[in-house]
Amino acid sequence: MASYVAPGIKDKFETLSTDLKNLILERNVELNNMQDLIRVLEQIVEEGETE
């Protein structure tokens, strides 16, 4: 499954750094709204804190 970014939040997604966008896309996630995007960002932060 490939990651999906809904058109409605694509502009927000594009403001992220390239590294962060790549991290999100590698997760094969479906981002339909801002809540989905925030949830994935929170997961990345949590994983970063446990490393």
What does this 3D model show about the protein?
With 51 residues, the protein is mostly helical. It has one domain. The chain is built from 3 helices and 2 strands, in the order βααβα. The chain has helices spanning 7-14, 18-26, 34-50; strands at residues 4-5, 30-31. A two-stranded parallel ribbon has the order 1-2. The termini are far apart.
Secondary-structure blueprint of this entry?
Blueprint: E1 4-5, H1 7-14, H2 18-26, E2 30-31, H3 34-50
Parallel strand pairs: 1-2
Describe the largest sheet.
Answer: 2 strands, parallel
Secondary-structure-based class equals mainly alpha
Order of helices and strands: EHHEH
Order of strands in the sheet with most strands: 1-2
Integer tally of domains: 1
Helix content: 55-70%
Distance between the termini: 26 Å
- Say how many strands there are: 2
Brief synopsis:
By secondary structure, the protein is mainly α.
Top keywords for this entry?
2 strands, 3 helices, 51 residues, mainly alpha, globular, two-stranded parallel sheet
